[in-house]
Design the sequence.
């Protein structure tokens, strides 16, 4: 594989359905061509990737919620620094799209109530329930136009999927990164929609930071992340309390967990395997939450709430949680958003939270979130 210099335009050379694009504060990767495809399951993926990569090579792409891998070893890859904010989205009237929510909002409310009943019965501590918006365009979709407004926002990505599809998004959540022996995971859990009014926006942030329900939800995730990483780390720092972080549309409770590997030979994908799926996108206990998701969500998540990123031949890499994303297939976009349900959750507020999370992708389309979600 050759390492290329980077063009001024970070998307120059991006080929929809073939290239992997991944950009964060740590830098930007763009792949070209495909030397090998690495499918299969996450269970054996770290070992298979290690065996497949030669010196200076990378593997990049997405892994689904259920663990199905969709990585490529490219023929060439270019690296550059972090990317600034993208071009503003154009305008797109809601009438340009045929929209179908899955499930219907009323059915989503029923699913949340069912989950709360399971919690009251002691079967669950937390479950993340998602919904989708299926948007069908009157004309051809331009992946570049969708991706460009997302540049500079969190972990911006585009990854090819089987069947000519692609996963595009801007995730605020880092599953795990590894640089040498240094490990970082930055789970987010506990959210509130932002407001255009500065005083109201600050009030919502302060309310989130003091919310017993959201702090409990967040602690469940952080404890699970620490438990998964601790066997691999000689040192592990877990802050006692979360911080507030924000995107254009959401406030989140955030905890940055840092560690030092005990064995420098452990690759980033082995850490990702131990972490995925965290309670931030699944729930706890993990198996009970998976079963609830399968029962209560009327669609296959596919690569939503999986992970997307890259790893190199040394085992270094960066993997974001695949949220705030859309799946592109011909003229159809499938947008995904979920909310963490714990004891004390209000079904109407959880529905509103998913609506707010849809706005990251809807803004990239230039579509009013209020009109669609």
Sequence:
């Amino acid at each position: 594989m050759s390492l290329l210099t980077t063009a001024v335009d970070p998307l120059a050379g991006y080929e929809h359905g073939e290239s992997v694009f991944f950009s964060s504060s740590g830098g930007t990767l763009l792949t070209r061509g495909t030397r090998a495809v690495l499918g299969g399951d996450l269970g054996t993926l770290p070992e298979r990737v290690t065996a497949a990569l030669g010196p200076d090579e990378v593997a990049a792409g997405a892994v689904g919620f259920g663990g199905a891998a969709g990585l490529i070893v490219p023929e060439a890859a270019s690296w550059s620094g972090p990317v600034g904010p993208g071009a503003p989205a154009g305008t797109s009237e809601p009438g340009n799209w045929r929209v179908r929510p899955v499930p219907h909002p009323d059915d989503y409310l029923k699913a949340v109530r069912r989950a709360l009943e399971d919690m009251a019965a002691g079967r669950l501590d937390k479950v993340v329930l998602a919904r989708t918006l299926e948007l069908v365009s009157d004309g051809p979709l331009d992946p570049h136009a969708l991706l460009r407004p997302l540049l500079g926002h969190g972990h911006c990505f585009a990854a090819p999927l089987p069947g000519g599809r692609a996963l595009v998004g801007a995730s605020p959540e880092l599953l795990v990164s590894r640089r040498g022996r240094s490990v970082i995971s930055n789970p987010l859990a506990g959210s509130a929609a932002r407001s255009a009014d500065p005083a109201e926006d600050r009030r919502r942030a302060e309310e989130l930071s003091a919310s017993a329900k959201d702090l409990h939800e967040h602690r469940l995730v952080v404890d699970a992340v620490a438990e998964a990483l601790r066997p691999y780390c000689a040192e592990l720092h877990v802050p006692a309390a979360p911080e507030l972080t924000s995107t254009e549309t959401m406030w989140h409770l955030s905890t940055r967990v840092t560690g030092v590997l005990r064995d420098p030979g452990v690759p980033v994908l082995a850490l990702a395997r131990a972490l995925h799926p965290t309670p931030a996108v699944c729930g706890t206990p993990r198996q009970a939450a998976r079963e609830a998701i399968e029962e209560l969500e009327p669609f296959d998540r596919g690569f939503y709430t999986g992970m997307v990123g890259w790893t190199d031949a040394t085992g270094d890499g960066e993997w974001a949680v695949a949220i705030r994303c859309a799946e592109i297939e011909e003229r159809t976009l499938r947008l995904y958003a979920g909310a963490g349900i714990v004891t004390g959750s209000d079904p109407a507020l959880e529905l509103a939270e998913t609506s707010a999370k849809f706005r990251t992708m809807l803004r990239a389309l230039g579509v009013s979130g209020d009109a669609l979600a």
Remarks:
- Residues 2-7, 89-95 have pLDDT under 50 and may be disordered.
- DSSP finds nine helices and 23 strands in the chain.
- Residues 2-81+96-372 form a domain with the Anthranilate synthase fold (CATH 3.60.120.10).
- The longest helix spans residues 347-365.
